[in-house]
Automatic annotation (TrEMBL):
The keyword Transcription regulation applies. SUPFAM superfamilies: GAF domain-like, Winged helix' DNA-binding domain. This is IclR family transcriptional regulator. Signal peptide: none annotated. Keywords: DNA-binding, Transcription, Transcription regulation.
């Protein structure tokens, strides 16, 4: 028997389902949604069907896969005027890809996660595919999430690391002690380095973009193979990241609709 769900729990579970579906461009099955959301299959199916009835999801009956629905497109288009910074930041992403030869990205903070919004391929033929549009990582994981966490307030970092089991989900290199060491180094240099912690041999670097309250709300990052991120090259890559992040921040400051989002 499916467990009853009420009140705020319904909203939380529906939001979780929408995020799960959003991370799978090819669609996702009901069974996968149930597993990833920690729900029974009847409960997952009931929520999926309800979201589809509102136009928030779409079901491909031929392939038995769920996709984001047309109503989300409408809502997203309306919200973009207030939240979307891709037009402002795209030049910076393209400049990083052009000047470094690596894949470049724009990510945004959403609660305790980062979500990749823009990807631009560089000229170097060997690439890393850890990041792509729509992928989410917890704060502290990947260079974008690390740099946004690093420049958060100390008490916020303490609370986050105390309640989020990064080590359990991402391995010993994401223990509280290990992350604090990387936070200290990030604050010293101004940019974050991810030395192949998500996928061996795939490195990344990131720089934060701050909102009008001085909070790290977005990040520019680059990824590539380890030989492209040797210690002697990192300062130059870091300089380019910080330069473009600063330019994006200046553009945002002159665009009132991108005020702080809370």
């Amino acid at each position: 028997m499916a467990e009853p769900i009420q009140g705020g729990q319904v909203i939380s579970r529906a939001s979780s389902i929408l995020r799960i579906v959003s991370e799978n461009a090819e669609g996702v099955s009901s069974a996968d949604v149930a597993r990833r959301a920690g729900l029974t299959r009847p409960t997952a199916h009931r929520l999926l069907s309800s979201l589809a009835a509102e136009g928030l999801l779409d079901h491909d009956s031929d392939r038995a896969r769920w996709h984001l629905g047309p109503e989300l497109y409408v809502l997203g288009s309306l919200a973009a005027e207030r939240y979307d910074i891709t037009d402002v930041a795209r030049d910076g992403v393209q400049a990083l890809a052009r000047e470094t030869g690596e894949s470049a990205f724009l990510s945004a903070r959403r609660g305790n996660e980062t979500v990749c919004l823009v990807r631009e391929e560089g000229s170097f033929p060997v690439r890393s595919f850890v990041l792509y549009e729509g992928v989410r990582f917890p704060l502290g994981v990947a260079s974008a999430g690390l740099v946004m966490l690093a420049f958060s307030a100390d008490d916020e970092i303490d609370r986050y690391l105390a309640r989020v089991p990064l080590e359990a989900n991402w391995g010993p290199q994401h223990s509280g002690e290990a992350i604090r060491r990387r936070i200290a180094l990030t604050r010293e240099t101004g940019y974050a380095v991810n030395p192949g912690l998500i996928l061996e041999g795939s490195w990344g670097m990131g720089a934060a973009i701050f909102d009008d309250r001085g909070r790290p709300a977005w990040a520019l990052s680059i990824t590539g193979i380890e030989p492209r991120f040797r210690a002697e090259r990192q300062p130059e890559l870091g300089r380019l990241l910080l330069e473009q992040a600063h330019l994006v921040g200046q553009r945002l400051a002159s665009t009132p609709r991108h005020a702080s989002r809370g």
